[in-house]
Structure formats: structure tokens, C-alpha cells
Amino acid sequence: MSASELRRRVRAAEAVKAKTREMAAEHALTAREAAVKAAKAKEEADVTAREAAAVVLRLFDNDAELVSELLGVPAEELEREAKPVTAARAKDIIESLRARAERPRTTRNRKPRADAANAASSTSGAPAPVVTADDSRADAA
Fold first, then answer.
1. What are the pLDDT digits (tens) for 73-91?
2. Which of 32, 77, 31, 69 is nearest to 53 (CA)?
């Protein structure tokens, strides 16, 4: 093996090492960003769950046993989740839920499907042709 071939192979090996390091760093950065995003989503979900527990307890006059039976969640867990939520925040959520419940729902008028109406009129009395395994047609009887 010549010296130039040896230098070429060393440069190629160094290039592979550099590319590997670059890919590893990029992978680590991507994983870190995903972990941060997941942690933020989990925190938001935890806050929402705590607020929901506080609201449901407040709506049921703090009857943790009844709510526990309805939801299938231990009463102690409900009370523990609801504890950090302030009464003012629970009241705000309840008011927004009431406003949302009182808001009239909009309904869309559905148009009759043209192809369904055409299909009903075309199959009025004649049997539909049946395609057999050899692609020949036969009457459905």
C-alpha cells in the first residue's frame, strides 16, 4: 500500500468519525428538545387534571366519597390533586364551563346526498348485474 493510499484511507476514516460525531450531537439535541416538549406537555396535563379535580369536587359540594365512586378514583387522590388549586381558579373554570354550556350550539344543515338519491331511483326494480370470477356478468336472481 502506498503512502498516498494510506493518507486517503486515514482521511476517509477521519471523515466518517466527524460525520458520526455530528450525527450523534444532532440526535442528542433532537432528543433533548423532545424531552423538554414532553415535560412541558406533562406539566400542562398535570395542571389540567388538578384543576378538573378541584372543579368536580367543588361542583359536588366537596363530597370526595361520592366523586370517588363516580370516577373510580380514590378520594385521597382527588383531594390531594385538588388541594393546590385555588378556590378562585376553580370558580373561574366553573364559570367558563357554565358559559360554554349555556351557549347555543350551531347546527349545520345537511344537504341530501345526490348520489344516494340517484342510486335509489336507479335500483327501482331491475336486479343489479353481478360480476363473476371470470369477469363475465350475470344477473342477480
1. 999 999 999 999 999 999 9
2. 77
d(CA 58, CA 83): 11
Q: Which residue has the cell 336507479?
A: 122
Residue 112 domain-assigned? no
- Pull the grid cell for residue 80: 390531594
**Considering the domain boundaries, does residue 30 fall inside one?**
yes
* The three three-digit cell numbers of residue 113, written as one number: 346526498
Instruction: Give the pLDDT confidence of 102-138 residue by residue, as tens digits.
Output: 988 777 777 777 665 565 555 555 555 565 555 555 5
Residue 78 lies in a domain: yes
Q: Name 66's Cβ contacts closer than 8 Å, sequence gap at least 6.
A: 60
Give domain status of residue 45, yes or no.
yes
Considering its fold, how many domains does the chain have in total? 1
